Amino acid sequence: MSSYTKYLILLALLFRLPVAAQPQGQLIDRVVGNVAGHIVLYSELASQLMQEERSGGALPADASCTILEDLLYQRLLKEQGRIDSVVADPQQVDAELERRIGYFEQQIGGREELEKFYGKPIEAIKAEFRDPVSEQLVSRQVQEKITEGVRVTPKEVERFFKDIPKDSLPFINAGVEFSRIVKYARPSEAEDRRTKKALEELRTRITTGKIDFATAAILYSKDEGSAVKGGELPMVPQGVMVSEFDAVAMSLKEGEVSQVFHTDFGYHIMSLIERRGEQYKARHILLKVEVKPEDLSAAKRYVDSVATLVREGSITFAKAATELNDDEDTKGSNGMVIEPNSNSARWAVGDLDQQTFFVIDKLKVGDISSSQAFEAPGGEKGFRVFMLTKRTEPHVMDLVEDYPLVSEAAENETKQRAVDKWVRERLKGTYVRVIPDYAACPFKHPWVAPPVD
Questions:
Q1: I want to staple 174 with a disulfide (CB 3.0 to 4.6 A). Which of 1, 106, 283, 349 is the partner?
Q2: What value does the mean pLDDT of the chain take?
């Protein structure tokens, strides 16, 4: 499989796009659109068109026009972000990258498999996609600003629903709402001290010349992506690695070996290879503080005891999920698990991961599951319990039962009208050029100026 194909597959998963096949033959690229200096390349248009083709079903004749208009709109948002000095928060970029990488890891079987598939350590993958994710977050902020304040009243929701022809009402698949409480297995303090001491002793062997850094990394480092390369990482800018890693790298001289330092991944030592401004290349050795069977047993006992308290009525599930929960994603929602794409509590049954489905499918509403062992995408192990709070059977959309979905659809329609109005206004004072090949496209907005008589 070529590196270009791998790039498309990863890009598709990172941005939740259908996967495209590798284009056949040589592609001669060119500019097909320009919005205030932000260009759209033919290769980008062709790639997205291929992705749509591979997703199944016949494409409409004007599919390339629809995709091109969406790309032009993204460039218009980018220009507005430049005008308004909108920048993506580096922490938000990190979090979004981690979320999308985590999703891909779930699909491919873990971080190690991702690195093998892509042929790069995870840091290099993040560095490659940092700018696209940052631009997407800026565009999202601009669009949210355009639609801020857009709300719909219950009467508007009801009118929206009644305007849908009866024979056009969508079919709603089976869905569930559920909550969870998590306890991660934590290594003991003794194991933590043992790991740190082992790395300090290895550092001494390196600094006294008994073993060189690269050999030590190959033999002992638990970062499998870099260990085979003698611990060497690619040249990265600050912000790609965790903050502790950046801080140590910027404090070292070339060739210097750091003291032992700690991150969420474990204990490290680093040797700086090269620094160029705010970019650096380094080697590192990672020793992870291992979770022992007794630590897993302690986590299981904890979750079991919390579940017992809830079943006995000593504490509500919501309160336990807020106060006795290691799951940062659900602490603030009383344990409710939020579906990330719709940002709602309702999950289509088909969107649940296999392990969660098998547990939830056996529960009745109000039931609490037995404790379940699991491993998070980042490698953390622990136990969790689920509570099923709602189950809906397949049905035609109903205003009462599916009010949150109907309300969301009505609000989205209202937001789309606000966006359409904004685009029309912005295009009046923005330079836009589309090459003649696409001038006859049935665009929704006036991206192509009408001919002058």
A1: 349
A2: 87
